[in-house]
Every structure is written in C-alpha cells, then in structure tokens.
Amino acid sequence: MTNVTVCTVRLVSSIKDFRNRYLCYKKVPTTIMNKLPSTRRQKILDLAVQQDMVRVDELVKRFNVSAETIRRDLDGMASEGLLLRTHGGAMLQFESEAQRSYAQRELLRSDIKQRMAAVAIKQLPVSGSVLIDAGSTTTAIAERMPGNEHLNVVTNALTVVNALARNQARVQLLGGEIRWESFAAIGVRTILQLQELRFDVAFIGCNSMDANGFYTSTETEALTKAAMGKQARRVILVADGAKFRTPDFAQIGIWDAVHCLITDGPVPEDVSVVLNNKSVDVILA
C-alpha cells in the first residue's frame, strides 16, 4: 500500500470523527424557550440544541408518549420557527444553509436528493473523467455510482471519497485547505491542481440560485467551484428547488457557465426565461 493510499484511507476513516467535532450548534434565547407550551417541548428543544437534530422514535422512548404526540410537538415547534421538520424527526432552524452542519444537510430533503442523484448518474459517460464537487447532494451521486474501471473520478470532498470507497472506484482526491463545514478541499492549491486537469463531466453544487447565477457562502469556495467548471466539457449543476432564494455572499458563476441543471423544481419564471435563453438543459427529478 502506497503512502498516498494510506493517507487517503486515514482521512476517509476519520470523517465521522471530523463530523462529530465540527457540528455547529445554535443557541436558542431563553426568552423563546420560556414561551414553549410544555415542559416536554422545552426538553425537546434542549436536545435539538445539544444534538443538532432529534428523531421521533427516540423521543417516543424518552418521554413515553405516542408517536402522534411527538409529531404534534415537532409540527408546533416548526410552525414557531424553532425547528425544521425532516423525515422522521426535526432539526434546528438556521437562518442560512451555510450555518448547518454537514450532518444536518444530509438529512434535509434527503428523499429529494436521492431522486436527483438517480437522475444525475444517467449523465455519466461510459468512460472518461468525472469531477464531483463537495456537498450532500453530490455525495448522494457518488453513493449511487457503480464501479467502473473506465471512469476516473476526481473530487475535492472527503465524503465523496468515502462513498466511492464502497465500490472501490478509481478516485483521486484533490488537496488544499479543508473546509470542515463541507469536508471539502478549497483554495489556491486546489485551484492550481484543477488547472492541470480536464473533465468530461463536472457535477457542481451551490447554496442558492437566482436569475443572475448561482452562489455559495465564501469567496474561496466560490473561486474553487468556478475553477471546476472551467475545466469541464459539460457542467451539471445539482441543486434542489429550495435553493431558488436570496443569493448567498459569493457568486460562483452565471448561467452561461452551466450546460445542465438538475433540480426538483419548480423553477421560478424569471430563472426559467434565463435558462431557456442560455440553452441550459433543465432536468426535473
């Protein structure tokens, strides 16, 4: 086993440790907590602050009440803006996508991400090179990829490497500064490596979209993602419909830089007009 392989294995095996160490927590003001209608709901919120998320089955056992009662609690807290409902539970409500931990983003709209991933793998070439960006949706694509010795995969994401390791796919991990919120290598070193490579297809993610383009939360991450797109013959942006909203801080690119958008829709009318004018293929999952 080479030194590079050993290093990669160690990085992959440490992902769960990284996730546990770098989860971001939201402190809920005491004034809000005091307004909760029951002690049980206050305790549920306490658990959500400690764990980032709560599950219905766990809460049923903890409080010895029915699943219907817990669901009503979670629905009520979601309506107050304290929690965000997910499949089988809830998580803390954050002001922006960037504030969520990676573990939270994995659970958020997970069924939609799986549908999008199923559509995305149909865009893979039979052979050649594929770039997979960091993100929970792009990682879902990697999880569905079959082993293919004729396909060379390059990524900047530890989570993608971990997903591809299951089927022993050929994968190269880009180096750079690790952004713990997404377990992604970004920055100057990553960009310099990208400039030496060419890809048949690049799957890229973003935090938000509008008629003017697509965005992420930091300038360095935006520059890295933009560099990915420049090196690919075909750029596929994968982003669910909830990301059609107020733009994040840093713009990755304009729609001229994208060949295909995979989303679950609906696409706002002003964005749809731009995509049509720019000849961007839109695939709804």
TrEMBL record:
One of its GO terms (molecular function) is DNA-binding transcription factor activity. It comes from the Bacteria. Pfam families: DeoRC, HTH_DeoR. InterPro entries: Carb_Metab_HTH_regulators, DeoR-like_C, DeoR_HTH, NagB/RpiA_transferase-like, Tscrpt_reg_HTH_DeoR_CS, WH-like_DNA-bd_sf, WH_DNA-bd_sf. Residues 37-92 form the HTH deoR-type domain. The keyword DNA repair does not apply. Transmembrane segments: none annotated. Keywords: DNA-binding, Transcription, Transcription regulation. This is HTH deoR-type domain-containing protein. It comes from Sulfobacillus benefaciens. The lineage of its organism: Bacteria, Bacillati, Bacillota, Clostridia, Eubacteriales.
